[in-house]
């Protein structure tokens, strides 16, 4: 049984930059690459397996045809997505719906997400939450265009983590490089775009009605309390979030580590360094899935991994 490495795909964005090329070493010609879809089975951008007997196979096909790799016994979509986002400019202020709203209105999943800050310039900020106490006040501040009063700006630095539950107003700010774990969804409602115009002089489309419907008021912070656990002398695990959709953690390996997997399958993104995992090299910029059959994990090397697994919906 082999690890399942994914072949990332890339999206040009007007706010994108060059760090996916210069920092992560991906072979890109553009200097406006905003998004690396690193692990995705979503129809709007699907990753394929890069290695082994399933090489070239789209992740959704692997998920459907080989449920044993994921210990999945229900017909459903692959639930998670992992991305790297390079914000060279401010992103529009947005919000995502929950499962119930998204399935009813968009035929998509809801989009809970979370951010691990890989890199940030000294003055980098994000927008995370708002100051309105209730939905009437929220609506009034939006109608009046009182964005400075409404939006919460938060300074960020490398290593910070933010849980972004559905209904949370948020935006990445210029100078942030982020690893994002999210539900497999591509539904975004844009609330505000700084009145910017594109090359043809047009404002970007906003989705005010839907945004105002799904924004939660007052803003409630997602859980961002980090819990660290030493795994012997040569590894540290930090729990980043454990919400109703996914668990995400940071695993720092400085030597060797043996682990027994206690989830059905595990998503791994290597964000610094290089290591050997069960005889295969994993290095910065690699994204892979540990299949269900691989219960023992033997690491050796020096690397930081963001690991995540789904939390099964309550039925
Ligand atoms: Zn978002």
Account of the protein in words:
- The protein has 315 residues and is mainly beta.
- The protein has two domains: 4-214, Sandwich (Jelly Rolls), CATH 2.60.120; 227-310, Jelly Rolls (Sandwich), CATH 2.60.120.
- 12% of the residues lie in helices and 43% in strands.
- The chain contains six helices and 22 strands.
- The strands form five sheets. Strands 1, 6, 16, 17, 18, 19, 20, 21 and 22 form a nine-stranded antiparallel β-sheet that branches. The protein has a six-stranded antiparallel β-sheet with strand order 2-3-7-14-9-12, with no helix packed on it.
- The longest helix is centred in the middle third of the chain and has 9 residues, at 135-143.
- The radius of gyration is 20 Å and the shape is globular.
- The model has no long low-confidence stretch (mean pLDDT 95).
- Bound molecules: zinc ion.
- Zinc ion is lined by residues 94, 96, 113, 170.
CATH architecture of the largest domain: Sandwich
- Name of the CATH class of the largest domain: Mainly Beta
**Helix-strand pattern, N to C?**
EEHEEEEHEEHEEHHEEEEEHEEEEEEE
- Bound chemical compounds: zinc ion
What are the defining features of this structure?
Jelly Rolls; 6-stranded antiparallel sheet; mainly beta; binds zinc ion; globular; 2 domains; 9-stranded antiparallel sheet; 315 residues
Q: What's the topology here?
A:
Layout: E1 4-7, E2 9-17, H1 19-22, E3 33-39, E4 41-42, E5 45-46, E6 48-49, H2 59-65, E7 80-87, E8 93-95, H3 99-106, E9 113-120, E10 125-130, H4 135-143, H5 147-150, E11 151-155, E12 161-164, E13 170-171, E14 176-183, E15 189-192, H6 208-214, E16 227-230, E17 235-242, E18 246-260, E19 266-277, E20 280-283, E21 287-290, E22 296-310
Antiparallel strand pairs: 1-6, 1-21, 2-3, 3-7, 4-5, 7-14, 8-15, 9-12, 9-14, 10-11, 10-13, 16-17, 17-18, 18-22, 19-20, 19-21, 19-22
Bound molecules: zinc ion.
């Amino acid at each position: 049984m082999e690890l399942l490495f994914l072949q990332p795909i890339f999206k040009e964005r007007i706010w994108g930059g060059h760090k996916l090329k210069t920092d992560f070493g991906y072979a890109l010609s553009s200097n406006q690459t905003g998004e690396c879809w690193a692990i995705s089975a979503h129809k709007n951008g699907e990753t394929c397996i890069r290695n082994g007997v399933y090489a070239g196979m789209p992740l959704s096909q692997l998920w459907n045809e080989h449920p044993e790799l994921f210990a999945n016994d229900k017909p459903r979509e692959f639930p998670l997505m992992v991305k790297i986002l390079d914000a060279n400019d401010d992103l529009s202020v947005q919000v995502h719906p929950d499962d119930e709203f998204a399935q009813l209105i968009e035929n998509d999943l809801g989009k809970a997400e979370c951010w691990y800050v890989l890199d940030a310039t000294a003055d980098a900020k994000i927008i995370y939450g708002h100051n309105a106490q209730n939905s009437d006040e929220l609506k009034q501040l939006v109608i009046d265009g009182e964005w400075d009063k409404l939006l919460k700006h938060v300074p960020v630095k490398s290593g910070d983590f933010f849980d972004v539950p559905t209904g949370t107003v948020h935006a990445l700010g210029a100078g942030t490089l982020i690893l994002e774990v999210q539900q497999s969804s591509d539904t975004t409602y844009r609330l505000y775009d700084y009145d910017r115009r594109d090359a043809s002089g047009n404002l970007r489309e906003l989705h005010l009605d839907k945004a105002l419907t799904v924004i939660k008021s007052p803003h409630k912070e997602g859980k961002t309390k980090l819990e660290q656990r030493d795994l012997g002398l040569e590894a540290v695990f930090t729990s980043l979030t454990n919400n109703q959709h996914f668990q995400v953690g940071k695993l720092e390996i400085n030597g060797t580590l043996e682990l027994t997997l206690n989830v059905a399958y595990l998503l791994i993104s290597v964000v610094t360094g290089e290591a050997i995992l069960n005889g295969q090299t994993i290095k910065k910029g690699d994204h892979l899935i540990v299949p269900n059959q691989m219960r023992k994990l033997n690491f050796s090397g020096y690397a930081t991994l963001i690991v995540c697994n789904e939390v099964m919906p309550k039925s």
